[in-house]
Amino acid sequence: MGQAGTAEAAVRYLRSGKALAVEALPRPELRCVREDERAPADPAEFRRVLGNFATGVTVVTAPGAPGEEPAGFACQSFSSLSLDPPLVAFMVGRTSTTWPRIARAGVFCVNVLSAAQGELCRAFAVSGADKFAGVPHDPAPASGSPRLAGTLAWIDCTIHAVHTGGDHLIVVGRVDALGTGEGEAPLLFHRGRFL
After folding, report:
1. What is the C-alpha to C-alpha distance for residues 145 and 111, in angstroms, rounded to an integer?
2. Is the Cα torsion angle 54, 31, 26, 18 positive or negative in sign?
3. How far apart are CA 134 and CA 189, in angstroms?
4. What is the pLDDT of residues 11-28, one digit of tens each?
5. Are 129 and 162 in contact, with CB atoms under 8 Å apart?
6. Which of these, 44, 48, 43, 77, lies nearest to 60 by C-alpha position?
7. Which of 33, 132, 140, 159 could cross-link to 147 by cystine, CB 3.0-4.6 Å?
8. Structural domains of the chain, ranges and CATH numbers in brackets
């Protein structure tokens, strides 16, 4: 039958009403990590070792409030999360100055960068600069967030949930629209440099 067939059969069975009711587990308490709970790993060693995991690179954007420029930042910690409902996630540092603007907008667009967009990534990785200067973009169809030209793909979202995760926030987005772009290969980041 294969995995796809097995999954389809399981969904049909669950929707038939014949499945036994399953009691939901209690929701875990969400809280920040206390100082005495910190792991013994040295932060520099942690970064060095995890830098061996190559990641795709994105730019997360949001429309600006009236009279404000749009917001955006370079993000390596993006992932698909759920197929039904369609959800994605990204992580952002709690000290980010861009995140509060995206949170206020309540929507965002994830722009998956192509291999030729390393300079664009660097422009969105800095603080305090006009990140959109000279960057061609148009509004994403559902949120109006900047959809950058030349990307591999774009995912237009509404903020669904935000969770704490140590010194970062875990942002979950509900996908409202998405599509592919013009790029041919992804921009990857490995050991502190673009591939």
Report:
1. 10
2. negative
3. 24
4. 565 566 555 555 555 666
5. no
6. 77
7. 140
8. 42-194 (2.30.110.10)
Tokens representing 127 are 């603080």
Q: Compute the distance between CA of residue 53 and CA of residue 139 in angstroms, rounded to an integer.
A: 32
Cβ neighbours for 192, distance < 8 A, ≥ 6 positions apart: 51
d(CA 40, CA 6): 43
Q: What is the DSSP string of 111-159?
A: EE-BTT-HHHHHHHHSSSS-TTTT--EEE-TTT--EEETT-SEEEEEEE
For 61-104, the pLDDT digits (tens) are: 999 988 899 999 999 999 999 999 999 999 999 999 999 999 99
Q: Which structure tokens are listed for 49? A: 């070792």
Provide the 10 A C-beta neighbour count for residue 14: 11
**Hey, what are 181's tokens?**
């772009």
